[in-house]
């Protein structure tokens, strides 16, 4: 065999091996996507229908405190609608945490965002922050993982800023639906998300949703310093935060260095160097309205 023929034979073999590698990767990716769909369905159908989700109480007539708000005081153009103190009082925790912890004692909270698929438990593993990146709520190895926080955050939601991480899954599970907040209309019409824990219900008002770079916020900023935290908040609300790539802000929402913020964070596209963040400030805890002035 002459050199030219050997050269082209080698090229064909290498091309064939490259094709096999690509097809193998695609098959693996499709299989992981299939597993993610199966596990997401199991969480939504098996867990949600089981005793982990309590039965909804019968709906009663709307409370007098809400129904008697004068129409002229609601939704004034250019003004923030004042939230009546009673609006959060009748919220009932729908999660049976005793049943949830039988599944996995590291599941310590649950998050729900209206009109999205985001209705999942939140986990945290001490000494292994990356575990739930690719392990599900049962602790099984699954590409989609589980929503989680890192051990730098406490599990009692008292930190100035807590970050909940979740994958942006192509099958529209986990934190995929955070990208709905890219729509101004959705951002404007969905001002709250809810976090349930064993002893409390917390309501957060969404004040910002934006694309950001991939820096690790809790390491990059010393948010335990009130001045640094205030500077961070100012940067978010003005769109001048280093790394800000554009988004929406609810300027009328009160946020300052006494606030407690939760950030929901996922990837943009298939990973890369950008992240999408939805940030909410605590406005109700255990049925009591919270703001920076009464912290």
Task: Give a written overview of the molecule.
The chain has helices spanning 3-49, 64-67, 97-103, 184-189, 217-220, 226-238, and strands at 107-112, 119-123, 147-148, 161-165, 192-197, 200-213, 247-249, 261-268, 271-285, 288-289. The protein is of the alpha+beta class and 295 residues long. Strands 1, 2, 3, 4, 5, 6, 7, 8, 9 and 10 form a ten-stranded mixed sheet that branches. β1 (107-112) and β2 (119-123) form a beta hairpin. The longest helix is centred in the N-terminal third of the chain and has 47 residues, at 3-49. It is globular and about 85 Å long. Mean pLDDT is 79; it is low at 44-90.
Provide a count of the helices: 6
Q: Whole-number radius of gyration? A: 23 Å
Helical content band: 25-40%
Structural class, from helix and strand content? Answer: alpha+beta
Shape: globular
Q: Number of DSSP strands?
A: 10
**Residue share in β-strands:** 15-25%
Distance between the termini: 83 Å
Average pLDDT works out at 79
Order of helices and strands: HHHEEEEHEEHHEEEE
Low-confidence stretches: 44-90
